[in-house]
Amino acid sequence: MSRPLPVALVQAPPRPAAAPLSGFVEEVGELIARFPQTRLVVYPELHLCGVTGSADASEDQLRAAAEPLDGPRARQLAELAGDLGIWLVPGSVCERGPGGELFNTALAFSPEGRPAASYRKIFPWRPHEPYVPGDRFVVLDLPGTGRVGFSICYDAWFPEVARHLAWMGAEVIINPVMTTTADRAQERVLARANAIVNQVFVLSVNTAGPTGTGRSLVVDPEGRVRTEAPDQGPAVLTDVLDLDDVTRVREFGTAGLNRMWDQFTDADAPLELPLYDGRIDPRRWRPAVPSPFPPGTDG
């Protein structure tokens, strides 16, 4: 059995501030014309917000780019995904919350042209980013294929995010990034580490130069880099992920050895976690198992 997911990661500079959506529709259309089998397209963090860097953008600039989730930007992106029949993750955007809050929010749109998921960055890069932190982890089912989860840039530095997404059944973690600093080398290590310790695919797509440092990559559930951008230049990474690789690695172990999700038995005592004022309960340890079939069907 195979569950293929053809993906395209677009390492590109941010769109211009004056008209961030101008030309984007045509760009995505040209991408699908070049790679017609693609089902999932992912862009970098804040790609459509007209900012040249998340660290040096002023709060006024970010607020000027902010829209509510049901604003005109989201409606146009949903229409684009529907016209092309793809899952579209246009990076993250500045979201204006119902109380005027400013969030850094990853969006996903379905091949039917509907909003499919939104995730607010839980760990803004402080003290540089003014966003209000999100308060929940988000996963999304791609019917007939599997489940993806979302993190944004600095979230990757906190292992709780990837672990929680994997526990919720994510088989792929999508991580849009706008890294303009010298720590991209460490982020690439973290992408591999998060893939290894959770046995998931990780898609880390960074902004291209001259704004960002590039080096986007796709990592498999055993931590191997499947494809990567060699530098900061604009690039499109294409790959076909087989989500059954996640099933295989979890069943037989990383390198045929390590089966972390089967570490505990129901007879093991809970392990107290004073750091979180909580604990690991062995009965709740294993990840969720997403259905490969569309909702409302029997498979």
UniProtKB/TrEMBL annotation:
Keyword S-adenosyl-L-methionine: no
Coiled-coil zones: none
Alphabetical keyword list: Hydrolase
UniProt cross-references to InterPro entries, sorted A to Z: Aliph_Amidase/BUP, C-N_Hydrolase, C-N_Hydrolase_sf
Gene Ontology MF terms: N-carbamoylputrescine amidase activity
Organism superkingdom: Bacteria
Alphabetical list of Pfam families matching this protein: CN_hydrolase
One example of a Gene Ontology biological process annotation: putrescine biosynthetic process from arginine
Kinase as UniProt keyword: no
CN hydrolase domain location: 5-243
UniProt xrefs under PANTHER family: FORMAMIDASE, NITRILASE C965.09-RELATED
Protein name, entry field: Carbon-nitrogen hydrolase family protein
Gene source species: Streptomyces caniferus
